[in-house]
Amino acid sequence: MSKRNVRALKGRPGPLRKGANGGEPRVRAADMLSHALGLFAEVGFANATVKAIAKAAGVNPALIYYYYANKEALFVEALRYAINMAIEGQDGMGIIERTADPAAVIRFWFEKNRQLASPLSQMLKLMIEYRTAGRRIPAVEKLISQFYDAEVLLLARAIRRGIKIGQFRRVDVDRTAIFVSTHLDGLVVSATVRPAVNMARSISHLERVLFDYLGAAAEAVPSAPVGRLQHTVPATRS
Amino acid sequence: MSKRNVRALKGRPGPLRKGANGGEPRVRAADMLSHALGLFAEVGFANATVKAIAKAAGVNPALIYYYYANKEALFVEALRYAINMAIEGQDGMGIIERTADPAAVIRFWFEKNRQLASPLSQMLKLMIEYRTAGRRIPAVEKLISQFYDAEVLLLARAIRRGIKIGQFRRVDVDRTAIFVSTHLDGLVVSATVRPAVNMARSISHLERVLFDYLGAAAEAVPSAPVGRLQHTVPATRS
């Protein structure tokens, strides 16, 4: 991305300002970004045209150019949208962390990842394409760090608390959290490179491995709180 | 990739035929593909021009067009080259499998992955870009399957043999092999998306986790055969 484009992106109030033709701009912008995300992830940056994205979103290409200086600015915003969506998902864990036992928190986190498998896969593809293209946009760098840090911190907190109350055996907490986060990335890549891989099933396997490692077999963990909490998560699997 | 391009690629004798200006064409073609691989992985398909690849390889762009119909054909050959290189590395394990104990085979496999971290990372990036662009070229599909199947088979064989001779505890062999292979992909992605991640150190951690899981602590495994075998691997880390 050229310096000019980055500046153009920064200088704009962004997709959240009131649209020219009224309506709720926040919703419409999110809808456009969601379609941009899907198409960028599906066919890659080079092959996803603004025209095709506009068509998928059911809007005029001029509206996209009204919001975004160019395709690169749209790509960066789509990536930012995907990461923010994932981080918001993590933030929503706050209330569960305060009310459920550590094992339930971890099980809920796995369930969320199973349900968000498709958007998370799109996010990772865009992150890799962003890196591969050698882009370095401070705001995006910060979002990527925030996403991984939040994920690892959530897992580490639950594992540490589980050890403290005697639910899990003593393990290297930070190493374990990073290991699980890394493995999830590996599962997403597997499912991308080898379409025959069933991501939801792989995530469930990782969950069993983790509980086994923590000395808490899946059966031994009370499942009632998770069963209840699952209903609060919208089914977004595509 | 258009059908015409695929046909153009298939119809050609490929990069291994004798070059117009003599010399050893196999070596020169490998050198060109190695540079193409590096540039495609570094800046992505769209940003890597044939002119830049020719410059990096120190040849005339016309020579590249003499071998490859277009940039897409070159991309596919670079991906094929990377996968073949990785599979050849796995094939070279045959003699070690016959002469060393299972733990030494697994340690040797990890050492190889540490040493080939950079080209393996390039290969994975190209695989993801190939998938993302929606390409479906039977020869490449086959190579991707061969690569993963060979990797998982090698690990599964060593684990099974280790269990048989009482070196490892009983585990689900295939699940464990797939788990390790998937995690390695996750490590490559982590190092791509978050450059602060030290891939060699992460691979060593995965190695310790696996031996711990197999009930064979790193210390308990005889290290002499591995120490000897390591010298047969050329140091290709960049």
Count of β-strands of chain A = 0
Average of pLDDT of chain A: 78
- Largest inter-chain interface? A-B, 38 and 38 residues
Shape type of chain A: elongated
Order of helices and strands of chain A: HHHHHHHHHHHH
Q: What percent of the residues of chain A sit in helical stretches (DSSP H or I)?
A: over 70%
Q: Runs of chain A with pLDDT <50, length 5+?
A: 1-22, 219-238
| Gap from first CA to last CA of chain A | 31 Å
How many independent structural domains of chain A? 2
Radius of gyration of chain A: 20 Å
CATH architectural designation of the largest domain in chain A: Orthogonal Bundle
Tally of separate helices of chain A? 12
**What is the CATH class name of the largest domain in chain A?**
Mainly Alpha
Structure write-up:
Two copies of one chain form a homodimer. Chain A has 238 residues and is mainly α. Chain A folds into two domains: 3-74, Orthogonal Bundle (Arc Repressor Mutant, subunit A); 92-232, Tetracycline Repressor, domain 2. Helices cover 73% and strands 0% of the residues of chain A. Chain A is built from twelve helices and no strands. The first copy, chain A, has helices at 3-11, 25-47, 50-57, 61-67, 71-91, 94-99, 102-115, 117-132, 138-164, 173-193, 199-213, 224-229. In chain A, helix 7 (102-115) runs antiparallel to helix 9 and helix 9 packs across helix 10. The relative contact order of chain A is 0.11. Chain A binds chain B through residues 41-47, 124-125, 127-129, 131-134, 144-145, 148, 175, 179, 182-190, 192-195, 202, 205, 209, 213, and chain B through 41-47, 124-125, 127-129, 131-134, 144-145, 148, 175, 179, 182-190, 192-195, 202, 205, 209, 213.
